[in-house]
């Protein structure tokens, strides 16, 4: 609900240029990426639960402050806190699913279910966001903070009622020891497939994030008809398409390898960017049609990316691998700034044409992915024991 509307708030309240708005958003996201990797790696040693509680508390503080700030510097500080919390929360939830569920197919279904529920919330959020965020009622962000407080209570209840591991699991497959930080970095640097995957998905996130920030700025500055309705309809359409098609697409594509599924999603992404580049500013339903195509690609891509990392990661390095994968957020972080610069100098059609060319590059990177070498984990030094205080 929050991120796209903040771009409009910064423009309407402070008359910032597209580049300045992009710089504000990118600054927050870049800081968050570094925090995410450190936090996710530490979760392998100190446990997911503690960090999830800390992250939830950071969310509550951030949204409470967002209800009060009235300056550009205040927005910069609070949005940075929000971005840090988000970048920590995503890999922690995905990693926790991997910890709880042993069977790969069940784990994939759980990740799909998580993504489904997030988008079910997004289907309601845009409509509420227009009322809460764009009418000057900043105090409404206290509702968001209260929602996270409720989530923390539910999370605590869930952990308290989590079934114990079966005795056979404890006896037959004890948890592997954990690598130290230096050894973890050594393994990640040796995994060339992972590095190429991260580069491809950074570009992919850069392309997708243009819808969250630059598209909204383009429509605002071009004075698109029925702007607020169009913005909320775009986000509402995105969520509804995902909700209605996710499990159908999962069933239809179940027989295809992960990389093939991702390539299909990328082709849909390419079509959507070309559509956005060519759509006339006044054609309301043209924007919605492009978002439908983009959302179908997102429905395939985003959950599959998490599953892909989960399958690549050794059990004792799952947190580190998901933390490394959070480098995808560099694409999200740089998108507002990059998109804002292109908007200020060349306009919206040039922005989405550039995004289409970058999509072609991502497709090429995925084609060479399976040919890249991975480390032999047995070659590395003996890992350090797991911290007994870890959850």
Automatic annotation (TrEMBL):
The chain crosses the membrane at residues 20-39, 51-69, 75-92, 113-134, 140-159, 230-250, 262-278, 284-307, 319-343, 349-369. It is found in: Cell membrane. Residues 1-373 form the Major facilitator superfamily (MFS) profile domain. It is a multi-pass membrane protein. GO terms for molecular function: transmembrane transporter activity. Keywords: Cell membrane, Membrane, Transmembrane, Transmembrane helix, Transport. GO terms for cellular component: plasma membrane. It comes from the Bacteria. This is Putative MFS family arabinose efflux permease. It comes from Shewanella fodinae.
């Amino acid at each position: 609900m929050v991120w796209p509307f903040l771009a409009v708030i910064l423009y309407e309240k402070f008359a910032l240029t597209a580049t300045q708005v992009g710089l504000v958003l990118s600054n927050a996201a870049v800081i968050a990426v570094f925090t995410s990797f450190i936090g996710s790696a530490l979760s392998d040693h100190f446990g997911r639960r503690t960090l999830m509680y800390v992250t939830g508390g950071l969310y509550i503080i951030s949204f409470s402050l967002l209800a009060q700030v009235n300056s550009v510097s205040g927005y910069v500080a609070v949005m940075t806190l929000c971005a840090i919390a988000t970048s920590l929360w995503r890999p922690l939830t995905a990693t926790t699913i991997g910890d709880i569920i042993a069977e790969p197919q069940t784990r994939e279904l759980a990740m799909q279910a998580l993504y489904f529920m997030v988008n079910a919330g997004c289907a309601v959020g845009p409509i509420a966001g227009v009322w809460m965020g764009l009418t000057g009622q900043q105090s409404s962000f206290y509702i968001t903070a209260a929602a996270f407080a409720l989530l923390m209570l539910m999370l605590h209840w869930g952990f308290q009622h989590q079934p114990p591991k079966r005795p056979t699991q404890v006896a037959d497959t004890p948890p592997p020891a954990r690598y130290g930080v230096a050894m973890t970095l050594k393994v990640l640097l040796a995994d060339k497939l992972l590095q190429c995957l991260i580069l491809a998905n950074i570009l992919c996130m850069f392309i997708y994030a243009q819808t969250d920030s630059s598209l909204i700025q383009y429509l605002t500055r071009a004075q698109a008809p029925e702007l607020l309705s169009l913005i909320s309809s775009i986000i509402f359409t995105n969520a509804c398409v995902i909700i209605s098609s996710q499990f159908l697409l999962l069933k239809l594509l179940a027989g295809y390898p992960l990389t093939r599924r991702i390539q299909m999603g990328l082709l849909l992404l390419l079509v959507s960017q070309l559509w956005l580049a060519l759509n006339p500013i006044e054609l309301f339903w043209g924007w919605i049609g492009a978002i439908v195509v983009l959302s179908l690609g997102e429905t395939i891509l985003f959950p599959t990316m998490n599953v892909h990392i989960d399958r690549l990661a050794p059990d004792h390095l799952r947190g580190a691998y998901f933390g490394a994968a959070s480098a995808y957020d560099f694409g999200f972080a740089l998108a507002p700034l990059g998109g804002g610069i292109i908007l200020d100098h060349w306009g919206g059609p040039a922005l989405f044409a550039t995004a289409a060319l970058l999509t072609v590059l991502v497709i090429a990177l995925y084609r060479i992915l399976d040919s890249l070498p991975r480390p032999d984990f047995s070659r590395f030094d003996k890992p350090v024991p797991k911290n007994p205080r870890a959850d």
